[in-house]
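[#protein-structures] MJ: dropping DtxR family iron (Metal) dependent repressor here for a structure pass
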Amino acid sequence: MELGESAENYLETILLLQREHGPVRPVEIANRLGFSRPSVCHAVGLLRQAGYLESQDGRLRLTPKGEAAAGEVFERHLLLCRMLRSFGVGEEAAGKDACKMEHIVSEETVRCLRAAFGEAPRRGPIVRQGGHNRRG
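AK: finished. structure tokens for DtxR family iron (Metal) dependent repressor:
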């Protein structure tokens, strides 16, 4: 399954919710993203079938594959925020712009940004508490 922007947003949101309080209920995803529960249930079903999520007792948890994919998206977001902030972009605008850019930036650009900011390539998911809020 090729991950598109929507799937990446779901995985990243689940990663952040999971880090806040463990396994996630679909209603929490719907509330965070502002989507309907049926839309979330459909997307979750596709992600589960593709091996990114597992569920138990109505709660979702990222699989290692899902955590790696979500961590990569989150890492790109943080890196792009850092770049934009270094140009003087305000925190709120940088966060919103990074949310859009994180889905289209090439691996070459990510490598160059890491080098510019003195960051080594990551191995495994990036998990940081706080500092990233999908909706402002």
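MJ: nice. The CA atoms of residues 83 and 91 lie 11 Å apart.
AK: one more thing. The two ends are 29 Å apart (CA to CA).
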